Request: fold
Amino acid sequence: MINQIILVGRLTKDPEIRYTAEGAPVANITLAVSRNFKNAAGEIETDFVNCTVWRRTAENTANYCRKGSVVGVTGRIQTRSYENAERNRVYVTEVVADSVRFMSGKPRELVEQES
Reply:
């Protein structure tokens, strides 16, 4: 079986990093990825893909990427479910990233801090 995905897109907001009870860093990012075709109205639609990034890759992504950064993500699709407060089953499909490649330059505020 193969479960592999490659995405290139822009971050819709700054990465959100947190730490598990065991101390492992985990970051959540959302990529805006344009489709390769136009719809009936002649517009290019965009998909918003939720991704989870772990450990050192999560820390680097949170430190060096900001809203609007272009990144390449490789990973796998994962589906999970849980019961919400209203006792309804909620299904979540996300990308669990193996790697994140930074494809745009450093954010301006990071460059200014280094100067």
Observations:
- Residues 55-64 form the longest helix (10 residues).
- The two ends are 49 Å apart (CA to CA).
- Residues 60 and 100 are 9 Å apart (CA to CA).
